[in-house]
Amino acid sequence: MKEEIRALEENETWTLETLPSGKKPISCKWVYRVKYSLDGSIQRYKARVVIRGDHQIAGFDVNETFAPVAKMTSVRIFLSVAVAKGWELHQMDVNNAFLHGDMNEEVYITVPPGFMVVSPNKVCRLRKSLYELRQAPRQWFAKLSSKLEEYGFAHSYADYSLFSYRKSDIFLGLLVYVDDIILAGKKSMCRF
Predict the structure, then answer these.
(1) Nearest to residue 171, comparing CAs of 85, 96, 98, 99?
(2) Which end of the chain has a smaller Cβ tally under 10 Å, C or N?
């Protein structure tokens, strides 16, 4: 739990503030999980702060939740073209993807249980997304796509979650499915 709070603070997930009048904080809770190794032994214990997104009110602390997701047709065509052209393929799952999205709405949550606060009337104003926040997938996709555009990637007109980068003889294709990414390009272009 200490590691989770430390990580959230380092990520500047929230700021402690006095709750403005007319606002209501959303409760949060701890979710615990045991991660096992392949041999069945305990690898580590995991604790995560989760917002009660089911308590969010549309138009009050959430406006838009839609986030583009790759169409299955796009995935099939993307992989088919990559194989036909002999491109190198990489797949990655972005760890803690939803924690990277910046908040557009003004959302307050209660202080996580067990978290020490100097003043008891303080709440946490979210600056970044948390798990189970209804708009978290949208915020993550917005941050990812803006960064990709900064690097020169362009959205596809056919599928908004498909990005391509083209410069002289360099071509890279990138397909986003929630927090998974498939990257394809010429073998010499995909070195990490």
Answers:
(1) 85
(2) C
